[in-house]
Structures are given as C-alpha cells and as structure tokens.
Queue: 2 jobs
Job 1
Amino acid sequence: MPIKTYREAINEAMAQEMRADPTVIVIGEDVAGGAGCDGDRDAYGGVMGVTKGLFPEFGEARVIDTPITESAIMGAAAGAAQTGLRPIAELMFMDFLGVCFDQIYNQAAKFRYMFGGKAQCPMVVRTMAGAGLRGGAQHSQNLTQMVTMVPGLKVVCPTNAYDAKGLLTTAIRDNDCVIFVEDKFLYETSCEVPDESYTIPFGEANFLREGEDVTIVGISNTVNKALAVAERLAAEGISCDVIDPRTTSPLDEEAIIESVEVTGRLVIVDEMTPRCGIAADISSIVAEKAFGALRAPIRKVTAAHSPIPFAPALEDAWMPQEADIEAAVRDVLGYKG
Amino acid sequence: MALDKEGFLRAYRTMRTIRDFEYRVSDEFGKGNIPGFLHLYAGQEAIATGMCMNLTDEDYIVSTHRGHGHCIAKGADVGAMMKEIMAREGGSCAGKGGSMHIAAIEKGMLGANAIVGGGPPLIVGAALSAKTLGTDRVGVSFTGDGGSNQGTTFEAMNLAVVLQLPAIFLFENNGYGEGTAAGYAVGSKDIASRAKGFGMPALKVDGADIFATYEACGKAVKHCRSGKGPIAIEASITRFRGHFEGDAQAYRGKGEVKRLMKEMDCLAIGSAAAIKKKLVTRAQLNKIDKEIAQLIDDAAVAGLAAPSPAVTELLTDVYSSAY
C-alpha cells in the first residue's frame, strides 16, 4: 500500500470528493494563493500547502481565495451549505475561531434545530491546531473543547494520515457542520494510505494498543505521545490500552468505559488548557459511568492554565510531554488507596 | 417597473397581512399567550413587500430579529408562523425557533436571525451557491441600521464585491438600533454611502412608499440577475412599535411616534396614491382588509387551540443522523 503524509492524505480526500461531487468547494485565505498578483497562482495552496494542486484542477469557481475575513468565510460557507453546496472552509489557524465563532456556533450549528429540521448545513471547517512551533499565544492553540461543547457541531481530530483521509471523506459527505482539527505537528508524518476513497465513521474510537494495566486516552497528537510512552513502558511489563477517540463529538464513550472496566486506571491527555477541556469532560463521564471500576483516581495530563508562551523553554513546559504522561501512568499504577 | 393595478393589490394584501399579523401577535403577547421576546415589523411593511415581490421562491433572503414581515412577504404560511410564535405544535420551526428564528426554508426565507449582523455573511453564501451552481437566483440580506454597524456586515459586503456575487444588502433604516439613534450610531453620512465605499452601487429610497420601494428593489434585483455583482439599498422608515414589545420608547421625542405613524404609514400612503392614480378603489381595499382580518383571526384561533410541542421532540434535529 502506498505511503502518504498526513498532508497528502487530506489533500487526496478533498480532491477525490471534489471529483465525485461538483457541489464540493474549497474556500479560504490563500487556499490557492496569488489571487490578483503578478506571480504564480496556487503559490501557497494553503499556508501549509494542504490544498495545493486543487486550484489547477478545479479552477477558481471551486477553489476560492478570499480576503482575510474569517467571519465572512464561515458565514458564506454556512449560507452556501444551506443552499446546495458542500463547502470546505479553511480556518487557517484554530486561534482565529474567536473572530468568526458566531457564524459557526450561532448559525451553522443551529440551522437544522432552530428551523425545525427543515434546514441543513453540510459544511466542513478545516483548521490547524497545536503548539510547539513557537507560534506564540495566538497561533498555537488547540480549541477543540470550544467546538465540542456546541450541540449541532461534529468535531474530528485525526491523528495519522490514514485516519485523516477517511475521516475527512466522512466529514465532507456528512450533512452537518463538521470541525476538522488538523494537528500541525502531523503534516509530515506518514503511513499506509489507500489510493481509493474510503470513509471512517464518526464516534468510533481507534484502539492503538491493547493493555491491561492502564487506559490512556489522547486527543490529537497527544495520542501519538501516549503511544510512544506505552511502547517504552511495555519493556518494563506495564501494559497500556491506548485509545484515540478520533472524534470528540460524537465521543465513543463506550470504548473508553469498556477499557477502564478492564484496567481500572485512566490517564487522559490533551493539549488544551485544563479547565472545561476534553480531558475534564472524559474524566467526568468515566467518574459518572464507571466509578466502580476505578482502582485509582483519574489523572488528567493537560497544558497549563496560561496563554501559550513564546520562549521554547516556557512553551515546552506549557505542553504535555511524554515525561508527564509517563509520570501519570506510574502515578495511577502506584496508587495505594 | 412600476406597480400596476394587480401589483398594487398584491402589495397591499401583503402589507395588510403583515400589519394585522403584527398587531394580533402584540395583542396575544399582551394576554400572555406568547412566551419570549417579540420585535415587530409594523410600519416597515413596504420594504419587505417591495423587495419580495421582485423575487421568486427560488431566490433567497435572510432576515433580522424583526423577521415576521420578511417571512410573510416571502410567502410563508401565516398559520404555521402564528403557531411557531405561540410555541405550538405545527409551528413553522416545530417550536424550536420562535419569533426570532422564524423561517420558511421552502420559500427561500433562510431564517430570521437574532444576532444583529448575523445574516449578511450567510447571504453571501447563498449568492455564492447561485453563482457556483450557475442559477440566476439572487440573495437578499435584510439588515437594520443597527446591523449596518457590525463588522460581519462589512466583511460580507467586501467579500460579495470581491467575488462579484448576486447579493443585495437591503438596509432598513428605521432610525433606531434598540434605544440608540441611527444618527448617533451610524458614523458615516448615511448607510448607502458606506456600502458604496465597499465598491458596490447603492440606492436610497423612501421605505414608506411602496411604489418607490418596489421600483428600487426591482432595479437591484435586475442588477444582480444580470451578473453585475452586489448592490445595496438604504430604505428609510420608522417603526411603529418599540424595539421589543414592552419597550416604552422613552428615548423617542415627545409625539414622535404618533406623528411618524401618520407621516410614514405605508398602507395609508400607498392606498391614497393608488386611489388617486385610479388603480384601485377604496371598496376593493376594504374587501382585502376583511379577508386578511379573517385570515389572521383564523391563524390566531388555530394557534391558541394547538397543543405545545411534544417533549419527545427535544433532541430531534440536533443532527442529521443518529449521534
């Protein structure tokens, strides 16, 4: 099977869906690049090159470069989705959610319900999240928790190239507004990805590793860190279940609970601030529904409750690291009641 | 094109329906039969009517929190609207929207919007659909003077110009954004010149004059349908009621509301002009008045008789499929 990067897998999903369905369009800032310039068109193909090549194939009617205007991009996508298109709108960095959130959580997310089931909003917001690139406080955040809390939205956090392609294909074909959170640390990672089109259902977790001692749940790239930790600990005879929920909305609660019922210990990792985050949410679900199975307090490994600092030493301290995950695993294993 | 006899009769019927509908919901609200907040369109009828008469069911509109009139003008069923506003089963939004989210999706009325400035970006999307799919549909965003000050509206106007979309930004300047005068809150000379600043033509019209409004809207729709990109209209008008029902309007000058209700009553002005032009007779209009009174009464009676939506509907239509 061919090996493809996360970036290539996402690009391929878009291209294949655009070939199959003429109502699928891509809209956003520099999704091609070069509009109105004297130089090359498709100069960017998205700031991370994820949409590169779509413009030459599908043209300016379907790959639409916009001004820097996030509210209008999200609103236009929502209005277009309500009237016959399937827009893939790019929100360059997830940090920019603040300037356009109304169009997403008050408009796109609510059409179907607010209008009594007579409207729909089949749009995808592709966005990029994740710290560690020294992007500072406004170009580094993963705000998955902010969209996960909104009824009407679905939220996808692909953690490898194979999942990225299948989940994005599902997202584009879905009739609801889907927030597709790409981890910018993963664009260069690769794995086997089929050439043909395929879907991965939402709400079905991926068991990356099976174990009996501790359950580790990770969101976005943190699940890859958790996997690395689990592999190391296996050498010591500590076996971990590593679960990638893939989507935070819907969330595969059952998979997590089933695992905790075996291990009795839970570590949840995300790269978000700790209050009201995904780790906190999963923690509360397990505490409510599987309290009796727990043999140790649930441990959350999250970022710190501060804006994301710029200095590498500070940012590294802000982010959950493999050492933090390992410490948490040892902690729950050593719990003596 | 000017309104002819048949056109005026249609316009009058729509305007009368809106006026009576609004006064009836006001009464029912006063009696405690309507929960929540109400923002009434009474006084502004000629604008929604003049625009929507130039549209077909295939064209799209988005509206404001003051959306009953736009809904009726776009052809919505007043019975289902009344039930929705009364929070009854059979409401146009299944009891999940209410007055501020009234909609008639099947008629291209994509929804009232309780976020001021929420609608303009959405109509850019509807216009984008029309352009991308190669239809000759147009999208109209009804926005108030208040909404004209929101950043979303600016962004929407700019993007519509950049992408040359068939979008009409219709600003209904009723003089007040809640309890603050447009003269204070709109920093530019007027709203039309602001729209021009974004690179689109803009028309100004007396929103109390159905003949003028109909013509201006016709020009704007023609402009869009012929592929010339977006256009704006500023229609000046007054609102007969407060920002919301229950608003004592203490911010308005002494006698102002009473005076403007006389000077800017689109029904009275339109009727007088139509009779003078010998398009219609008073008797014809009286007959319409009677029919509409009955229509609205029937809608209200049916609404009051309908049960509340079933509680089992709470979680339906959050998503398109099982979640």
Job 2
Amino acid sequence: MKNTELTLNNIEGLKKSAIDDLKALSQDIDSLENWRIDYLGRNGKLSSIMKILATISNEDKKIIGPKINQLKVDLNKVFSDYKISLESKKSSIDENYDISLPGMKIQLGNYHPTTLIIREICNAFASMGFQILEGNEIETEKYNFDLLNIPSDHPARDQWDTIWLNSINAEEKYLLRTHTSPMQARIMEQKKPPIRVVVPGKCYRYEATDATHEWEFHQIEGLAIDKKISFSELKGTLFEMARKIFGSDQKVRFRCDFFPFVEPGVDMSILWDGKWIEILGAGMVHPKVLTGVGYDPMQYSGFAFGIGPERVSMLKNKIKDIRNFHLNDLRFLSQFVK
Amino acid sequence: MKLPLSWLNEYVNFDKSFEEISENLTMIGNEVESIDQIGDISGVIICEILKINKHPNADKLQITKLYDGSNYYSVVCGAPNIEVGQKIFLATIGSKLPDPENNTFFEIKKSKIRGEVSEGMICSEKELGLSDDHKGIMVLDNEYKLGDTLKKYFSDTILNIDVTPNRVDCLSIVGLARDISAKFSENIKFTYKNSLKSKNNNNVEILDTDICPRYSGVIIDSVKIEESPKWLKDKLKLIGERPINNIVDITNFVMFEIGQPLHAFDLSQIKEEKIFVRKSLKNEKIETLDGELRSLPQGTIVIADIDTPIGIAGIMGGKNSEIKPNTNSIFLEAANFNPKNIRSTSRKLGLFTEASMRFERNLKPDLTEYALSRAVDLIIDITGGKIRDGMEDIFLDKITSQEKIILNKEKMRLHLGLDIDNEKISKTLSYLDFKYEFDSKLETWSVEAPFWRSDVEIPEDLHEEIARIIGYDDIPVSFLSGEIPEWQPNKSFETKIFLQDILVSAGLNETISYSATSEKLLKITPSNVNFGETISLENPISNEHSLLRKSLIPSLLLNASRNTNNWKKPIKLFEVGNVFYTLKSKIIEKTMIAGILTGSKNELDWNQSDEDVNYFDAKGIVELILKKLNIDFEVLKCEDDLFKKNKSSTLFNKNINQSLGYLGEISDEIIKSFSFNTDIAVIFELDLEKLVKSQMPIIYKDFSSFPQAHRDISLIVDKDKKYEDIKKIIIAEKYVIECIIIDTYEGDEIPDNKRSLSIRINYQSHENTLSSKILDKIEKNILSKLNKQLGAYIRE
C-alpha cells in the first residue's frame, strides 16, 4: 500500500515536472525533441515508471495501471499540443509573405465558337423533346437532292452549288452534303413517328468565300413528324428557340420562302440593328418527301428547319467575317470564354 | 429581277409607298434584296451647251459655256461627244452623285482642272445612275426644258427582287404586279390578249419530239430598223437592259413585261424562209449574238434553216440571222422549249441569259401566243411593219383540261393551325386568278391554277398561297402537343461532348479545320495506320483543298504553326472532326479526336516550370481521356516517320482487340517543314467510335475501412526494362492497391547500363489492418519476383 502511494506520488510528480519542464523550454523544435526523449522516449521517465507495474501486486495494478495510462495519454497530449503551437508560430513568422503574387495559373482551353452556339441551340431544342443525332458529311445525290424533291436538271438545284467526289464506285454519285437536310430522309427511314430530332453538322458548297460566305460551314437540321403537326407548331417551336437564344425581347418574323422539300416554306428572320436578318429556312415537310421515304402524307405531317449556327454566332458576338471561324487563330478563339 | 415602281404602277389599282410595297413583296415570298432610288439627286439641272473652247493646258479636255435659262456656267469636260447646241444634265456645285461600287456618294465641288475653273460636271447616264452607259455625256431630246431638274424626268424607285426558282411568273412585271395586288386585295389591270389570225403551217417544222412543246411565229415585212422611241428605251434602261434597236428592244420589253422570251430573225438570212427546230448534230458550231463562236454539245436544241443553225433555242440567237440596220422582213418567234434541255445546254456552254433563266424554270407553253400578239402590235405601231399572213402555231401535247386541285378547309386548318373563313379563302383565290368551284356542304374548293402558276400542283401548294397572302404573321403560335418520342441515347455524340469538355479543361483550345486538304499536307498522315485510298474532289474550291483528309494531324500542325508568330503563350490545340477514305471502294467516314501541344508546357509564370512539352504531356492527356471514359489500354511501340524515333506509341485495347489511336513527338523533319518557333510538337489522335466501343461500365466495389499502408522501394534495373512491366508484377500481388513511380534516376552511383526507379506501393486489406510482418512478407515476394523476372534489385 505504501508502495502504491509512493508510486501515485511519483506519477503526480512526474506529471508536474514534465509540464513545468515543457513550459520552461525555449521555443524550438530541438529542445522539444529532447524533452520528448526525456519523458516519452524508450528509456524515458514514463517508461521507467511503467516498469514499476511489473513489480507490484495485481491489486495495486488495478489502481496504478489506469493512472499510468492516463499519464501517458496526458503527456502525449501536452507534447502534441505544444508541437502544434510551435509549428503554427513558426509558419506565421514570415512577415514579408507576398500575398500579392499571382495565384497558381490553371490553364483552361476554349471551345470553338461554333461548338458553343451549336450546343446552345441544340440544348434549346433538347428542352422541347428533340434528340440530337449526327450524319455523314459524304452523301449521295439521292439523299442530298432526289429524296428532297430536288430533281436533277432543276433550277432549284442552283440554290446548292455542289462539291462532287471523283467516282468511287459505279452504284452511286457521291458529294459533300450541301446541307444537313439529307438526314431528314435517313432519319425517317430509320425511325417511326413520332420523331423530333436536331442534327448538327458540317456542310459544303461550291462557292467563293467572302465576309458572309464560306464553302465549309455548319447547319443544324431539325425535323418533327407526327400525326397532326401544324405550321402553327413550327412557328411556336422556332419562336421559342429564338427566345432562348436571343432573349424574350427579340423580334422574330416568318415570311414566305421556297425550298423544294417543304410546303409552305418559311424564312425566319430576326430584327437586328434595324434590319431583318435571315437566320434559318424552314417549312412543313413536303408530301413528296414523306411519300419518298414510305410515309403516308394523309396520316403524318411534320416540319423541318435548317439553322446556320455561324450566322447566329456572328450576330450574337458581332463577328463581321465568317472566314474567322476557319482561321483557327488563337487571338480569335481565346475570346470565346463562354 | 428589277421592278421599277413606275412600270409596276401601270398595272396595279393601289397607291402605296415603296416601303409598303417592298415590305409586302418580301413577306409574300418575293424578297426585296435592295432598293435603288433613281434620279433623286438634287442640283442636277438641264443646260444647253452654248460654246466649246479648247482647254489651254490639256489636249483631251474642253471648256464649255453652259446656260440653264437664267444662269451661265463654265465647265471643263472630257467627253468625246459634246457639241454646241446639245441639251445636257449638269451636276452643279454641291450635288452628290451616286457611287454604287463603293456604296457611297461623290460630291461635286468647285475646282480648277489643269488651271481652269469648273463649276460642275456634265454627266453620263452612268454617273446619274440611269444606266451603265459611260461612253459619253447623256444628250437630251428637245422636249427637255432648260433649268428643269433631273428628278422631273427621271424619278423612280427600283426594287431588286430575288425571285425564287419556283416562280417563273414573277420574272415579269405583270407577274409581280399580280402577286402584290393579291396581297392588297386587288386585281391587276391586265389581261392576256391574242389578236393574231392563225395561218397554215408551212414555215416551221419541229424535227425532234420532246424538245419544243410549242412554236409560234409570224413574218413581218417592211419593218424600218431604227432606234426605239424614248419611252421604250427608258423602260429598258430602268430594268438594266441596253437598248439596241426597235425590234430587239420590243422583244426584250415583252419578255420583261409578261415573261415570255421572244426572238426576231432577219428573214432574208433564213434559207427558203423555212425554220427547223431540231437537236444539234455532232460538231455543229454557231457564232452567237455576243460574237462568240460556240461548239454545240450534241443534242442542243437549235433553230436552223435547211443548212445550218441560226440560233441556240431558248438561250441566244445566231449572229448570222441577227437584225441589221437594213433588215426589211423579220421572222418573230415565241416558243417554248424543254426546260431540262435548256438548263443542261446553258450549263455546258456556261451561257446564262434572261431567256434561258425563264425557260429552265418551266415556263408554260400557253404564253407564246399572247407574247407574240403583244410584240406584233408594238412592231406594227413602232416600225411600220406589216404582218405577211398570220400566226403560225405548232402546239404539241396541248392540255385541254386542267387538273383540279381540291382544297379542303378542314385539312388546311390542320396543316396551318389556322382557321380562315370561307369568304377570305375564296377571295384570295380570286385575286391570284385561281378559278374554283366551292362546295359549301363539304367546305371544299375545286381549284384550277392559272397556266402561269406551274408551281401549284397539290393542296399543300394552295395552303401556302392562302397563308402567304393572308400573312404568316396571322398564323398563331402553338407548341408541339404530341407524345415526346422515346429517348434513344446517342453514345458517340455524348462521348464527343464529354471529350471536348475534358480537353478544354486540360487547357487545349478547340479548332475546326477544313475537311479538304492539299496533297502536301495529306502526306503527313501517319503511314502505319491502315487508312485506305484517298478520296479526291471532282470540283475542288482550290488545289489547297482538293483531297479529303485522313487524319486531323496535318491541319493541327498547320494551325499550331500559324499561331506561333502571334501567340506568345503555350499553343495547345485540339479538334474533333471527321476523316475520310475508301477501303475496297467502300467509303469510310469516321470521327477522330486529336490534339497538338507545342513549345512550353506552361504560361510563363513565377511558380511554374518553363520546360518544353514532351511525349509525356500528350500521354498524360490521353491517359486522362481513357481513365475518364473507363477504358483499359496498353501502350505499344509505334514506329512511324511522322514521329521522332522511339518517342511514339499506339494505344491498344484488348476488348476490341484494336488500337484506339496513337501519340508521339513529331519528327524534326516535319517540324522544319512548318514555320514553328519551337522544335518540339507532340500530338495524339484517337478514334471516337473505338473509344465508345471499348468503354467499360462502372462497377462499384465496397471500399475498405481499414487503413492504407505504404512502402517506398528503390530499384536498380537494366535500362531496357520498362516500368510498365515492373508495375504489372507489383500490382498483381495481394493487398497492393496502387503503384506510383516517384522518381527515375540515372548517373552517379548507378551502373552505366542501369537506372534507378523509386516506387511507392500502397497496400490495403478488406479484412483487417495489415501488420508490418505481412507487409514485409509481401514486399519480399515482390522483390524476389522483380529480381527473377527482370533482374531488378534494391538500391542500397
């Protein structure tokens, strides 16, 4: 029992001297390390007290054991607290830390403006239940023209000056699609109504380039087929798109225009800087197109449209020359930070 | 098509401003592309030339004394055709003449020309914007009064209209007048008339079928070839035509008035006065009115006499039969020709005329007689000619009963989404000269389109007619109400978007390049990839763009090099686009994702390295892509002239047993062939469809809640041993969850043919905390395998 008391006193004493010593330390990591070895090291003071445990009765162990454990926990805690405070003091020492230096430069690239506007327009239609599909840029005469009610030797073809491919095989005459409209026929052949799709993609025309004409450009085709789709719904869908892209205040109009694969045909323009600017052609799918892909025009109707995304981007971003879209000049590209 | 409002007003019953007319023409489908105001130049007045003196300091200039009835002017003039006594237009000081080429104005200022004062300018027709005539000054007839303004005689508004290819009727003043009148709920002041008597056919023979549905003609004797009267010349000038002589001018006038091209031949040049309409034979030639000798493609429709062609039908007349000053008798033709044939001939010859433009747009044969009658009346009136007999008229396949189109009110309502009352429908049809019978019970109209509306064939065409005249503005706005189609995921499009997002986040800028490239650039395509045959274009825009690209790499190299002079930051570009080639005559078109990094890794910055990019920068991007798409891959050696030796690889996927793409450092030779400021460029190119196919689904595994342990080892290994093989051995061991290469080192303390690799291995168990005993055991296993299989040993 006496031993027990003695030991308990030792524990108390050790704790007090350890804390006193710690307080007396000069504030540096080396003296702390010496303190640690002195008290908590393999041959330190805590260790030697623990050795007492082996020499005492089991009854005494029940009393002293927990006390020694508590001492171990306490000393470790004061050590780590002291260490943390020491470290935090040390790191706050640099009084000349220059917080004005620029932060880590994280490099982000930019999307091509055509990609941005295509995404924006496609998303506008996706929110109206349109799915996004793509098609090939090499097309056949049949899909690019014939199935769209644009027979060969017809003046309507002049609207699409064509770049043809040199002969590949005897079966077909191939070309670079002049519009995304061939996808109308392809989609109708593959799917069953109801259909609502938009098809973004590259198109090509055999024409001289200038500030408003490019021989390679993009289009976004749209097609909706169902029972009882009306011209009024075409107007609603496209006006809604314009509202989403240009805002609710944007003035938009439909006027009569001619495309052989629609009837009635539409040119949709927006009022921009006091002028009406055409941004898309559209119309009700022509019965001949429906018949051509095996649809019954008495049962189904629908609308189609084709948007020029570069033109829309030019208006929105005040880009004066369509040729900039193909320059791939970083001075141009880096401005479209979204 | 030019539409002068003064001419339009002769046929219409409304009085509207040009703005209103223009706006409404555009809305109903005849887009007004631009508007020219004629004669609206203040300060241009009529003067008489009183005196002409030689300019003392210039041979070609003269000094004129002019008088406008109250004031005198001294004006320097260089025109060759000035004479004393002429009445002319003087642009006085301050007047602004049009400068259409620069879309601006040219102001007349008081000036000294070679030392002589000039108080204005004597104008040509071109300078006044009246015609393209700039041969000399415009000389006025006596009826013009001194001091009057230009505006008094020449004041007009010309609408330039883009007529759509379906509306051949709108390539005439009458057609446009009819369309705009319908919009304003009016009929026009015009009816088709034929006052010609018919005669037996003995002058004309059509030798081939399917080339000429109708041929009408008339012989007129005793014509006097002269300049046309002023009203006729003025009209032609307004519409952009150059007056030639009274006969030719009349044929042109009638064409613009009602849309039917006509042609007049000098009868004396037609052998035996007998005309044959036939297809051209092999090697036939003709000199056309424009003075060109043209070889006719076989099958061209020609107008010929017994020996030789005297005109290319529907396109241009022959020089041999042209109207000359001494022509006395003419043969006047109003015919109709096969539109496809005219179109194809006109394209083959590269000869596009006012006549060919109308014929190829499916002009109806009904029109010939009216045009002929109108022209004959004018010729008799103006030239004093006399009809020899009457009209000779061959009309093959004359359609006697026009097909009826049924307009059903309910169907139109469903199609347009607009309910229109019956009276409005009937009236609109009438204004457009559609004949109809209305069935009030069924609410249907049995409609007969007028002959000039060859474009109206089906009920939907009538729906457009009604809608455009009523106005598209009146059609209500509604939303798609049907069932939303079943959603079908579009994996490639989604992946494409995802890849664009990743690459932009990785600091690359998106480019879009032309799909067609040059022979020189195409050669840069990697040769070890089976690309098949190149596709070439039949009619390329230029030689620079004559072949379809097989890889995105060449254009990326070009784009990167073009930026080096103007962009001082790192150049990192990517493109997602299609490539094209054929394999065994089958077209392959697929989407590739490619990128290029050149020069320094980072923007110049105080806390980032200024090292140049290398192979591992490209590899890092590819690894990021493949990791985010959950695709397993192996890096294999790829030898190709495109790359620096040993610094390239292909990315192989076992699931599809194919390479997904490649990456590497571009060879010095290729770098040098572009104008780079750097000698290093790294690229990668991946196949989108293959990426889509080799993606693995995400399989979730419960994570371990026991602690991770790590051990670092430093290995010495032969230089030819690859890290990937070491990693494979390590990662195969139980409890190893990750193997990270921390450092590689060659040099001091390491044998010459060896290198040192420092590797951290992370361990974790799902069952318990791993003891150091177990870790020791695993590490020993790993080291022994590495030693046995690769000869690696621990660096002491």
